[in-house]
Amino acid sequence: MTEKTIYELSQPGRQGVRFPEPDVPVQALPDAFLRTEINLPELSELDVIRHFTNLSKLNYSIDGGFYPLGSCTMKYNPKINEEVARLPGLAHTHPLQPSITVQGNLYLMHTLQEFLQEISGFYRVSLSPAAGAQGELVGALIIKKYHQINKNDKRVKILIPDSAHGTNPATSSMSGFNVIPLPSDERGNVDIEALKNECDETLAGLMLTNPNTLGLFDENVEEVIRLVHEAGGLVYGDGANLNALLGIIRPGDVGFDIMHFNLHKTFSTPHGGGGPGSGPVGVAEHLAEYLPSPIVTIVEEGDDGTPPLFDFYEPKLSIGRMKSFYGHFGVHIRAYTYIAMHGTKGLRDIAEKAVLNANYLMAKVKQDYTLPYDRTCMHEFVVEGAWEDIPDVHALDISKRLMDYGFHPPTNYFPLIVHEALMIEPTETENKDTLDTFASALKSIAKEAREKPELLHGAPFTTPIRRCDEVKAARDLVLCCWIPE
Amino acid sequence: MKTPDGLKYARTDEWVKLDGDEATIGISDFAQDQLSDVVYVEFMIDEGDAVNKGDTVATVESVKAAADVIFPASGEILAVNEDLADAPELLNSDPYEKAWLVRIKLDDTSELDDLMTASEYEAYNADRE
């Protein structure tokens, strides 16, 4: 460990703050209000500053280097987003203020709803879900309520292709549905015959990640949607991979009923450190009244001299609230800024460059790595991180070795349908030089795997902490906030 | 990869050992190898529960993935292997003996008829490698 924990740095009696002498009589706190077991570290201000500054330098971030973590869309987050989010008129507002006093915030949210509707082809959008997985939960709960209201109690199963995001089956299961996995065909599309076999009166819906986790656009998407609709089910779109579609295809036009957006992926708000994310949900017209509240609407039209008056409303059949207050407003501001800065042509350009970058990198990487589905990819692609003739080398070894070359590893072992998967998403914000350097690192590693496999098995060599024991970490949980005496 | 004779195997990688109308269920060596190091086992059922073919016995979580173990037949739970909660690594080291998951009393042993023999299961796995 290059940096001790703050408890290890603690010295009894060391102080960070000196209070002034009291100018009123000293009054002892009653014993009932005193705790003895609190165990806080004792450090000076400088100790604390150095500790956290040193820790921050150990971080890997998109501002520091290439971050090809598949399906996470680790694009650069333009700094103007941060400038706008810090404007005092936005940053100093409070969610308990009367809505009449925060009309600017409501205008921004209303416009963002309209932006997202225009981008996706959906009829209405609710901004409140806190992140992608919560957006999915909203979708599953809407499907559930829709069938309840239509008195279709038999509709208990949700179909999930095996190329979907892992959160899709978890969400459906959490919502009380039976989860039925659907296989992929040899081109990586949903297996249509398997789908037909499941299209019956118990079908509640299907959750489709498109492009899927193989980075492939489902070539039969319209037929998949038609079959589910004909059987009386609804189709949920996982919008996590929307970056590949911006300005080219609108999921609402293709026939999806519901979709969540990941503002923190597609619309460039920071999400490397665990959030906060934001997962607005869009729906087709027939589901508009099911959306979670609150939604921003115009309650009084304006004219040339007066702006419109905005307020919140709750849709009539709403599944309810998913989040306190109004969702992650700070993230809404950043996404709004990003969309406004790019405009319609700029958004399409994002998708085109993201797809071009992924295909360029894929063409280079497949010289040395097996590409299980050899098709034009969308914004990401999946290769096998293993070779038949070197059985001792695994995807994990390749990823760890990439860290020695200065790169954040790609997603490992997902999707599960690819043996030793490495899932690589370069995003549109990387230039050709970076892609070339990354591709040549992967090429060198493939060579090392044959000639000096010990370099892969021992990697990483250059990081502050060498290879972690993931098994021990998962089996032997030590979750406490201080060092036991 | 070991595939002992005398056991029956499901396409979802469970093994079943039949003794009269009682059956012991576990996961195959192939399954544990695909999962890699198992770190957690959570049982979805308790002793005495009535279960249906297709229900989930347990969720097995490894450093790479989580997988459901599925009942290949209906019946009543006679015993659950509690040792696995503290020693999930047994699923990696001894999948056919110490790491059995549940014992059940079967409603109808013919429900196991569509399972595979050891040699059929080996052929099935060869296709999936």
Major sheet: arrangement of strands of chain A? 1-7-6-5-4-2-3
Order of helices and strands of chain B: EEEHEEEEEHHEH
Number of strands of chain A: 12
- Using only C-alpha atoms, the radius of gyration of chain B works out to 13 Å
- How many helices of chain A? The count is 16
Morphology of chain A: globular
Return the average pLDDT of chain A rounded to an integer. Answer: 94
Fold and architecture overview:
The complex is a heterodimer of chains A (485) and B (129). Chain A is α/β, with parallel strands linked by helices and 485 residues long. In chain A, 36% of the residues lie in helices and 11% in strands. Chain A is built from 16 helices and twelve strands. In chain A, the strands form three sheets. A seven-stranded mixed sheet of chain A has the order 1-7-6-5-4-2-3, with helices on both faces. In chain A, strands 10-12-11 form a three-stranded antiparallel sheet, with helices on one face. Chain A has a two-stranded antiparallel ribbon with strand order 8-9. In chain A, helix 3 (79-85) packs antiparallel against helix 12 (329-365) and helix 5 (103-120) packs parallel to helix 12 (329-365). Chain A is globular, with a radius of gyration of 26 Å. The two termini of chain A are 20 Å apart. With 129 residues, chain B is an alpha+beta fold. Chain B contains four helices and nine strands. Chain B has helices spanning 29-35, 83-86, 90-93, 118-128, and strands spanning 8-9, 14-19, 22-27, 38-43, 50-51, 56-62, 66-70, 75-80, 102-106. Chain B starts with 7 loop residues before the first strand and ends with a helix. The chains are: A alpha/beta (485), B alpha+beta (129).
